[in-house]
Specification:
Elements: E1 8-10, H1 11-18, H2 22-30, E2 38-39, E3 45-48, H3 51-63, H4 68-75, H5 80-119, E4 127-131, E5 135-138, H6 147-163, E6 173-177, H7 178-182, E7 191-195, E8 205-207, E9 211-219, H8 225-238, E10 241-253, E11 265-274
């Protein structure tokens, strides 16, 4: 039987198979990453169909942010063991990226829900609502701390959300205890929090009080929030309600959707109960 000759592909044909332009292949040849198997006297380059798989691996590694220098280093020291080690490493990186993408998707979905609800809300309205128990991830205690310490706590809290994939997309809120509210210290918060619809094991959580809440909205910055609390207290008196253990605040409109602080909107949720007659 006659010897079977391998069919070679021109640069254009190989580029078409790889879905790139010819200049990409020429550049890869120039840096010694992927060179044609044949270069004739006229300077024409020819590739083997077997090189397609190598190009695909190079392309995948490049998409996974591996530098051309590191890819070249691998291609010059190829081995089955080295390839397997590289694939396991990249598989771990893909899994991590997938988690990050899924977290970002959850964040976007939560923010869409919150904004759609906000757009249909009358911020002048005060209402009583039965809220279910919620699981909250808390910061360390922030009562009576300095502005400098507060900035540090906020920074640490946000770092933890990112590091442990705990950012659920819900607003970062603040908890104020009953005793602070009664003293009129409406911005002497006790904790930062973020709601966790799907809590992970191994993290400290706070089970938010379920039950009746008086809900109102403050439009403006923190300097005038006492005016909204006064309005809420008048409504509590009218409805014969007693202040519960905690008050929760969450920004509805902040710097993401408004430029001026006087247009910011804070949702205030006051735990209440009915006075016994």
């Amino acid at each position: 039987m006659g010897e079977k000759k391998e069919k070679y592909l021109s640069t254009g044909e190989f580029a078409k198979l790889c879905k790139v332009n010819k200049q990409t292949l020429i550049f890869y040849d120039q840096i010694g990453l992927l060179s044609p198997v044949v270069k004739n006297d006229k300077g024409y380059r020819f590739y083997s169909i077997h090189q397609l798989e190598l190009f695909n691996v190079i392309d995948v590694l490049k998409d996974l942010d591996m530098s051309l220098k590191d890819i070249k280093q691998y291609t010059q020291n190829k081995s089955p063991e080295g390839f397997l080690k590289l694939m396991y490493k990249k598989k771990e990186e893909i899994a991590k990226k997938r988690q990050e993408i899924e977290m970002k998707e959850r964040i976007i979905e939560a923010k869409i829900d919150i904004m759609e609800e906000a757009l249909s809300t009358d911020f002048n309205q005060i209402r009583i609502e039965e809220l279910p128990e919620a699981t909250l991830y808390l910061s360390r205690n922030i009562e009576n701390i300095s502005n400098e310490e507060f900035v540090e706590v906020v920074s640490d809290f946000i770092d933890q959300l990112y590091k442990f994939n705990l950012d659920s997309g819900y607003p970062i809120g603040v908890i104020t205890k009953r005793e602070q509210v009664l003293k009129g210290e409406f911005t002497n918060y006790s904790y930062l929090y973020i709601e966790q619809p799907s809590p992970k094991d191994g993290y400290p959580y706070f089970q938010a009080v379920k039950g009746e809440f008086l809900i109102g909205y403050h439009v403006g910055d923190d300097k005038t929030i006492h005016q909204t609390y006064e309005r809420l207290f008048l409504e509590m008196d009218r409805l014969n309600l007693v202040l519960g253990d905690y008050v929760f605040e969450e920004y509805i409109y902040d710097t993401i959707v408004r430029n001026a602080e006087e247009e910011f909107v804070t949702k205030i949720m006051i735990s209440v109960s009915h006075q016994s007659k």
